[in-house]
Amino acid sequence: MRSISDELSIIGEPPSDIDLVVHVLNGLGPAFKEIAAAIRARDNPISFEDLHDKLVEYENFLKREEVRAVSPPITAHVTQRSGHSSTSTPRHYNNNKVSSNSRGYQSFSNSNRGYHGSYQPPRKRPGQGYKGFCQLCDQQGHSAKRCPRVRPVISTAPTANYTATASPKPPNWLLDSAASHHITDDLNNLSLTSVYEGSDAIVIGDGTGLQITHAGHATLPTPFKDFALSNVLCVPSIKKNLLSVSQFYKTNNTSIEFFPAYFLVKDLRTGATLILGRNKNDVYVWPESLSPLTSFHAFVGVKAPLIDWYRRLGHPSSRILHHLVTSCTLPLSTSSSNVTCDSCLCHKSQRLPFHVSSLKSHGPLDLIYTDVWGLAPISSTEGYRFYVIFVDHFIKYIWFYPICHKSDVSLIFPKFKVIVENYFKKSIVSMYSDNGGEYVKLKEYFATHGITHLTTPPHTPQHNGTAERRHRHIVDTGLTMLHQASLPLSFWFHAFQAATFLINRLPTPILQLKSPFESLFGHLPNYLKLRVFGCLCYPWLRPYAKHKLDPRSRPCVFLGYSLTQSAYKCFDPTIQCLFISRHVRFVETAFPFAASPHARPSSPSLPNWALSFDIPSPPPVPLSLSSPPLLQSAMPVSSPAALLPHLQQATVHSY
């Protein structure tokens, strides 16, 4: 039926589950009549897969019933002395008394049912004898009731039967590495027993199969641990209890080591010895009685406190110490579980773990993190060796200021304070920094203006992690862009400034995938004006030409975005000038310094292509357009646009 269903599915006409179920039920034989009627009587239709599972289960049930039908019948035989009068004393039989005959059958008698009256043999018809076989001696011509082997009980005195419960003797188990299951001959050794319904048998050395009657579980109690024996088979015809080594391994997570005179049972995880057994007559026998001295433990003559064991073991960790005390039963004089060791506190001191910061902010300028980066191993083209950043905790916006000396922070911060407080129309509440001298110098200024100054503990920069992580982000991004453009490391200031400009415009999960720029100004940044850092560009330079025949542009290197104008910074390596212009053409796939034979020098060098131009020097640059002084050059890259003037004319900076 399944193959037909698959063929119909291939051609695009799969049969429904109801059709399959109806055809299968109609094709069942008489043996499945009962289950077919039960399925048809269901209120809800059954699926084809469930029907298949139920039919397979019912078929297995029928097979088990057939096996039971062919098994030898259990018979109960009663013997009585022949010729006894009908008024004889009734005979009684003990409860649960089992006897076995030579053919392997068992006979049961029940004392709850007394047999009264004498046995009256059936009358024989003339010329007809007994044709059956005796169930005791296997001879033809008489039954087991008249077998000469049965000796009648002559005593007719009244008897009284009683039962008494004796203390059971622990079973004797033999370790067998060739046994696949635990085997016992006594059903009393098992708990949670059930009748064995399978057709399997226990095969012994000569190939004979021994019948299994029950299955259950057993326990081997010891002073230290109770070992579980699962899937124990009851075979009454076997004479010894066999303990399967492989099953014992799996159930109790142990290992057994055999030696000529004894064997050891060890814990598989710790290797601790749990049981010591003996070899008796070349057979390894599970010990009948166990004392605490059977297992191997560490013993000393006098109990010692826990601190002494701690020192004896070489100052181990608390977890290891308590494990040894528990598993090896070390003698302790006190039950204290705490150990305080001065030597460990002095020589094992480590930094404690950090937790989530408890500092909170509810708006801009509530909390500002600040930190200084440097000293740079290479001075920038403008002579900078440091930079300082200010990070708002609420909006995550970064203000970037390059400086020549750390002490310049005391000059930068007052200017920064005026700009941000004027824009947000509120005062700075708290500043968080390390204990650097540049910030200690500002303590009086903070106190005068009502600013709370929070600092990190000594040698704990992790508390200023917000600023430290921004340093890593800026430096990693800037160095990556320098490497991509093959620019000298002396251009690190322009790369770090451009990296800060981009980081402020990138979405962050901390702000639910909003950028700090959007959080500050309330609108998305203009991503269309972004260009590849360090690429080839051509700014419009017509205002700087000496005459009308001079070129209107020249090849330059793009170094980022202007701080105060909506324009780009373009560096001309031939004349060492930085032009700021709005009218720029970009070739983002070309990097001029990548073609230079000295692509990564410490100071700017002229690429090969720049040497072929004969360009006159630009006219003198006014002082206001030259390289800015310290405070002017420290203007932040991403300061609010509303606070900074926008100059419309092109400017040029000379180095």
Kindly describe this structure.
By secondary structure, the protein is α+β, with helices and mostly antiparallel strands. The chain has five domains: 2-70, no CATH class; 173-294, Cathepsin D, subunit A, domain 1, CATH 2.40.70; 306-346, no CATH class; 368-511, Ribonuclease H-like superfamily/Ribonuclease H (Nucleotidyltransferase, domain 5); 523-654, no CATH class. Helices cover 23% and strands 18% of the residues. The chain has 15 helices and 25 strands. A six-stranded antiparallel sheet has the order 24-20-21-22-23-25. Strands 17-16-15-18-19 form a five-stranded mixed sheet. It has a four-stranded mixed sheet with strand order 4-9-8-5. A hairpin with a 2-residue loop joins strand 13 (273-280) and strand 14 (283-285). Helix 12 (465-485) crosses helix 13. The longest helix has 23 residues, at 48-70. The two termini are 91 Å apart. The model is unreliable at 71-122, 293-301 and 601-655 (pLDDT under 50).
